[in-house]
Amino acid sequence: CGLDNVEALLYLYNLAGQLGIDVISTGGVLAFAMELYERGILTDDDTGGVALTWGNAEAMETVMRQIARREGLGAVLAEGVRRAAQLIGRGAEQYAFHSKGLELTAYDPRGAMGTALGYAVSTRGADFTSVYAIPEYRWDAAQGREVFGSEKAVDRLSIEGKGALVKRTMIVSAILDSLGLCKVPILSVVGDFSLENEASLASALSGWPLTAADLLTIGERILNVERLFNLRHGATRADD
């Protein structure tokens, strides 16, 4: 949203939690509204006189409170960028960045092909916690070749090998979610996508002799069930 005031940023981040609205989707929908305001698609009549200019923390706070209460423009923006764009019309759809209706995380996936692909095919949409494509940032060429069959798979600017990378990271994310484990220390800090430690943990908890290969199979089944759920409710491969 063009906000460079750290104190204001922290205040608005905390406010989102107090209002019970998701900070990532809120940031996405605010940026969407600001883009429309800058381009004249939204006017002062639409905003109720709120100047939705980039970096305007006061305007952001006003609209966030409107979103939480579904008042004024907030009643439209509370629907998220996909639905809001449909309601606003006037070409707003081309500025509504989302995947399956979920707004993108703040970092730009154009600089990370694995993340971009993950956003496109994730069963939840543009959800970084479902993908966690850390290997394209952290792993060396030898690891990429060994695990994904391509050194380029761990080059964030290359599209080669990203299918294998995204599949593995989505499966691992599903397993960690199922075990109730935080992904930050395991995937972001350590960068371990082997599931060896998780297999030992799951075996100790369940009494079943589970291997890392078993968990990879289970994780794939989880993703397949999620995919089938989406299909039942109208989200097909055309939405990827």
TrEMBL record:
<dbReference type="GO" id="GO:0016625">
    <property type="term" value="F:oxidoreductase activity, acting on the aldehyde or oxo group of donors, iron-sulfur protein as acceptor"/>
</dbReference>
<feature type="domain" description="Aldehyde ferredoxin oxidoreductase C-terminal">
    <location>
        <begin position="1"/>
        <end position="240"/>
    </location>
</feature>
<dbReference type="InterPro" id="IPR001203">
    <property type="entry name" value="OxRdtase_Ald_Fedxn_C"/>
</dbReference>
<dbReference type="GO" id="GO:0009055">
    <property type="term" value="F:electron transfer activity"/>
</dbReference>
<dbReference type="Pfam" id="PF01314">
    <property type="entry name" value="AFOR_C"/>
</dbReference>
<dbReference type="InterPro" id="IPR036021">
    <property type="entry name" value="Tungsten_al_ferr_oxy-like_C"/>
</dbReference>
<dbReference type="InterPro" id="IPR013985">
    <property type="entry name" value="Ald_Fedxn_OxRdtase_dom3"/>
</dbReference>
<dbReference type="GO" id="GO:0051536">
    <property type="term" value="F:iron-sulfur cluster binding"/>
</dbReference>
<dbReference type="InterPro" id="IPR051919">
    <property type="entry name" value="W-dependent_AOR"/>
</dbReference>
<protein>
    <recommendedName>
        <fullName>Aldehyde ferredoxin oxidoreductase C-terminal domain-containing protein</fullName>
    </recommendedName>
</protein>
